[in-house]
Amino acid sequence: MKVLLLHRQSFGAIAAHVRDLKGALKQRGYDADIVDATEWMPLPTGRKTDKAVSERLKKLCEPYDLVHAFGYRCAWACGVAIGYGEAWVYSAIDMPKTTHRLLIDKLNCAQFGICSSYAVRKVLDEAMALDLVMIPPGVPDPPSPPPTKAEARAQFDIPEGAKLLVGMSRWVSESGLTALIDALPQVAAEHPDVLLAIAGEGPMADELASRARSVDSERVRILGCVADPLTLLSASDLVIVPESRSGFSRVACEAMALSRAVLLRHGGGLPEMVDPEISGFLFASDELLGSRIVELLGLPITLETVGSAARIRVLDRYHIDQCADRIVDTYRSVLED
Questions:
Q1: What CA–CA distance (Å, rounded) separates 262 from 309?
Q2: What is the pLDDT of residues 149-192, one digit of tens each?
Q3: Which CATH fold topology does 149-317 show?
Q4: Beta strand 2-7 pairing with 31-36
Q5: Taking a C-beta distance cutoff of 8 angstroms, is the pair 89, 110 a contact?
Q6: 149-317 has the same fold as 2-138+319-336
Q7: Residue of 103, 165, 241, 278 with fewest CB within 10 Å of its CB?
Q8: What is the C-alpha to C-alpha distance for residues 244 and 206, in angstroms, rounded to an integer?
Q9: What pLDDT does residue 146 have?
Q10: Residue extents of the structural domains in the chain
Q11: What is the pLDDT of residue 217?
Q12: What is the pTM of this model?
């Protein structure tokens, strides 16, 4: 069976998830192609834009038995171009920015909506989206053996004795990275050996660089898009995910798979990813982020123990094989109707 995996993110969690899913589908006998529609599917919608996108998308979909759209913009485009009753599904990874009736109408043209978390499913269900299933994304096994913390730190010139915080995401307003940078002086007052590494890329690059200079340019390292994000995560003492609209965090999953402790915002779908204080930690607000980091850096044995439990949780709930098996079951349900 031929499947089109449609997304519009050249960098980030969705792009990585789609690549992993393509490989997992191949192992299960599915021929999947990836199309990144970033260049020809603009974020703004409208009659003229929708018409141009629809014409291209209809031709693109012709050779495929099923189309899988990732993200709300691609789902909107499929709702317009493919319509109701055809073989297509969408994945809702993040919390929706809006539940306007026009969006829900487009989503309801799909055979299934695959939600990354119960939080995403709840919001869409309350907005009257139909045929929702909850299948969290997954990550593959990390390299075996993964680099040691010392080896990873050597690659990024991180002193062995430093307490390294890592924030990694697309640099957009919902990332929460400015709050993380702003929390650093409070952390440094209690832990003078702390460093913060910020990885990623996006439209907020200049703002993050400016904020880092104004807070503490020696302690904040703006790395940009790193070639080997798993090595950076391996170098960390604590990985922080302060995103405000996330239904699921791939960075958190990858860090947990490497037995690294994670600190997640108590919002969206992030709290579902951990057992609090057992396989991960939560913080309630930007105002409390600094004090929470101070507390956790003072508990190195706890961080190590929680990191070990985090790896077990990922293997149990967030492996790409589990995700692919359930998505294949969904595909079969669509094609057997």
A1: 11
A2: 999 999 999 998 999 999 999 999 999 999 999 999 999 999 99
A3: Rossmann fold (3.40.50)
A4: parallel
A5: yes
A6: yes
A7: 278
A8: 20
A9: 85
A10: 2-138+319-336, 149-317
A11: 81
A12: 0.95
